[in-house]
Amino acid sequence: KEEVDLLQTLANQAAMSIKNSEFHAKINEERHILSTLLEISKTINAQLDLDNLLKIIMDKTMEFTNSDSGFLLLLKGDYLDMKLIKGYPKEKAENIRIKSDEGLSGWVARTGKPLIVPDVRKESKYIEVNKATVSEASIPLMKAGKVIGVLNLDSTKFNNFEKFKQPLEILTNHIAIAIENSKLYNEIS
After folding, report:
1. DSSP, res 36
2. Are 62 and 70 in contact (CB under 8 A)?
3. Mean pLDDT across the chain
4. Phi-psi region at 77: left, alpha or beta (left = phi > 0; alpha = psi -120 to 50)
5. Which H or E run includes 142?
């Protein structure tokens, strides 16, 4: 009985050590995500040229989320106007024009809600642009409670974006502000 009690105590301590190790790893991952968000935010807020800003936004968010391709759309009337595309074949990129109620990006523009799709083959709103896409994140760019655009990221990996949902929502708020600031700066100039 003493040996069983001793083994039980050791097992409990081992379980606590494992839990502590998992918490430590999670805290380190969240710290890394937050520091990356801060760095991206600083970089985009320092840029006033709209074309350069959009390129930086796409490069940084694709790198941050391990995306394979993506595009950034700005709302213009009833359409989402393609402003930047990366990672798609050129002939595909030239033919993309989206109504504000069409596909994942259109749904996001209409509702103002982010949409993370772990497997696009199981999503009825998905319109195929790239056969290699498996998962997709479509996040609204919001300014003063209104959608001004959509950031769309694609991955060839299943469920690539779920862990980035909240960080992307935070980041897209900064992106929307930076885009509006850039537009205002260009108007004033």
Report:
1. H
2. yes
3. 87
4. left
5. strand 135-143
